[in-house]
Amino acid sequence: MTRVKRFAYFFGGFSVGVFLLMFFLGGKNASCAYGPNARVLKNIRIKHPEISATALQGMSNHGLDTAVVSQFLRNGKVLFRDSNIKINDSCKQYVIRGRARDDQRYLMQVKNCDSTALITDFTKYVDN
Question: How many domains does the chain have?
Answer without folding.
Answer: 2
